[in-house]
Amino acid sequence: MDELKKLPCWAKVAAAIMLVVFAFNYPANSSEWAAWVQALGTIAAVCAAIFLSRSQGRLSREIQESEWLRSREELATQRKETIRAIARVVDICAKAVGKSCDDVISAKSEYDVAAVKWREPIDICLIMLDRVAVHEFPGILVAKHVLNMRLAVAKLKTELTSGLEQEESLETYQKRLKVVQASVSRQKQGLDEFVDSYDGSLGIIRAADL
Questions:
Q1: Is residue 128 included in any domain, yes or no?
Q2: Same structural domain, 150 and 173
Q3: Which residues contact 96 (CB under 8 A, 6 or more apart)?
Q4: Which of 64, 70, 104, 149 sits at 20 to 30 Å (Cα–Cα) from 9?
Q5: What gap in Å lies between CA 210 and CA 208, rounded to an integer?
Q6: Chain-centroid distance, C-alpha 145
């Protein structure tokens, strides 16, 4: 009964017409019965061919849609994993920046010794951020945070290399380091919030494209 409900309207109309025609032309002998059987068999074969063709087309579309959805989910998962990897790089750099600023500030008059110790780790952070392929990953709002952090880390490198400016107090130098530290912290927090809410879709415009 359920299968009959699935039949298309044209098949139901055709069956009704055949029943009406058969009722008004009821076969009177064996030869007429044979003709009717042959006619009904031909019509049934044509209807079956049409029905199978339509069913196969529908099944093919369903399979294609299923494959497309699966592919989209896989790509979304890959994008989320890539974003998490970028976030891990940013986290490493943010920790290095925070620790270096704390060490240099706490060293006070011996700040230059602490600054020398942190120059190489900060250089490594710059290299890591330069290798984050934010421009090769379309549709994701991540370039803003990574590039701004890269600028802040480059600023820190300059501060660690140049040290106190002429006639500058130690307190002023420490304030500049704290500004850099706060900037890096903000970028890390912004990227973390984005990673937590990102669903892997391509509907988000990159900040670099704005």
A1: yes
A2: yes
A3: 118, 121, 122, 124, 125
A4: 64
A5: 6
A6: 18
Q: What angle do CA 125, 90, 196 make, to 5 degrees?
A: 175
Residue-wise pLDDT for 163-206, tens only, equals 877 677 888 989 999 999 999 999 999 889 888 888 877 665 55
Asked if 145 and 194 touch (Cβ cutoff 8 Å), the reply is: yes
Tokens 């988000």 sit on residue: 204
- Give the total number of structural domains in the chain: 2
Token readout for 28 is: 């009177």
- Residue 178 corresponds to which amino acid? K
CA quadruple 97, 102, 104, 105: dihedral sign: positive
Which residue among 23, 38, 62 closes a domain? 62
Residue with tokens 């900040």: 207
Residue at token pair 């025609």: 21
- Cβ atoms 181, 97 nearer than 8 A: yes
Q: Give residue for tokens 């006639």.
A: 167
